[in-house]
Each structure stands twice: as C-alpha cells, then as structure tokens.
C-alpha cells in the first residue's frame, strides 16, 4: 500500500498540470474542470493496485484520464437535454500589451476549436499538446504510431482553418 501511495503521488506531482489541461478540454467551464480532475484522481487512485508496469505510469494514468473524461462528456450530453446551465463569466487581468492580447485571443480560439473536434481527435490533440510522443499517444489510445501521425497532421489542418475563421 505504501508503494502504491508513493507511485501515485510521484505520478501526480509529475503530471497534474497535464491531467488538468486534458480535463479542461472535456469540460465547459472551470468548475467542471476541477470536478473532472478530482474524478480522474479518484479513478487513478482506485486503480493503482491494477497497475502492472507493462507500460509507463504516465501512459497508464493518461489512459485512465481519457476514459474518465469521455464518460463525463457522454453523461454531460445526456444531462444537457434535461437542464439549462447558466455559465458565469470570469474576467481575468490579461495585461495591457497588445502582443499578450493577440496571443490570448489565439489561445481562446484554439481552445474553442479543440472543443469542436470529435472525441477521438480531441484525445489525440490533448495528448499531443502535452508533449507526448506519437509512440506514447499510440500506446494510450491503442492506435498505430503511423495512424497517430496522420491524424495529427489532419487535426492541425482542421484547427488552423478553424482558428483562421474565428479570428
């Protein structure tokens, strides 16, 4: 049990920011992102005893995170028909430099465009943006490395066109 705790805490320390960003891609607002992140952590902790070490701990936790996020998105779509959500707006102090404003606009456009992707492409781009190698992405998603490379090229093109239309 102590070894599991140490492994969990070490993996969390190394990957918590990446996991949170993945959660934010699959959620509509900051509160949902936080809830989803907590759910991901609970699932990882509960599954620690089943980690066999046949892949890296990072690959294993990303696979769990994506599965939890996809289940969340599926549940969220079902509930969307039953509830009306009132989202609050958050105003951040972005800074006064024009370059920062332009970068922020591009980042906002990128996030909006990523959210428009289908679930499979969203998973690929989320892992790619976190700096995972094609091999790691293929291990997590169960696709060939070549297939991942082709998909990333197509996704980049879609995102580029979407951002161009948005800005």
Key features of this structure:
7 helices; mainly alpha; 167 residues; globular; 75% helix
What does this structure look like?
This protein has helices spanning 2-25, 30-47, 57-80, 98-116, 119-129, 134-141, 145-166. The longest helix is centred in the N-terminal third of the chain and has 24 residues, at 2-25. 75% of the residues lie in helices and 0% in strands. It is mainly alpha-helical.
Mean pLDDT: 85
The amount of beta strand, in percent, is under 5%
Rg, nearest Å: 17 Å
Number of strands: 0
Strand pairing plus helix content: what structural class?
A: mainly alpha
Topology overview:
Layout: H1 2-25, H2 30-47, H3 57-80, H4 98-116, H5 119-129, H6 134-141, H7 145-166
Short description:
By secondary structure, this protein is mainly α. The chain is built from 7 helices and no strands.
């Amino acid at each position: 049990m102590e070894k599991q705790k140490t492994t969990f805490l070490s993996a969390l320390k190394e990957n918590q920011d990446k996991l949170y960003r993945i959660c934010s891609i699959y959620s509509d607002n900051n509160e949902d992102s936080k809830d989803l992140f907590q759910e991901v952590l609970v699932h990882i902790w509960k599954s620690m005893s089943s980690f066999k070490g046949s892949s890296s701990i990072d690959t294993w936790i990303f696979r769990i995170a994506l599965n939890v996020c996809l289940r969340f998105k599926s549940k969220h779509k079902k509930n969307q028909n039953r509830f009306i959500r009132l989202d609050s707006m958050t105003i951040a102090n972005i800074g006064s430099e024009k370059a920062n404003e332009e970068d922020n606009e591009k980042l906002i456009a990128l996030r909006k465009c990523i959210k428009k992707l289908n679930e499979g492409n969203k998973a690929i781009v989320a892992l790619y943006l976190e700096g995972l190698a094609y091999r790691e992405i293929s291990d997590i998603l169960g696709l060939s490395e070549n297939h991942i490379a082709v998909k990333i090229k197509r996704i980049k093109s879609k995102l580029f066109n979407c951002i161009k239309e948005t800005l």
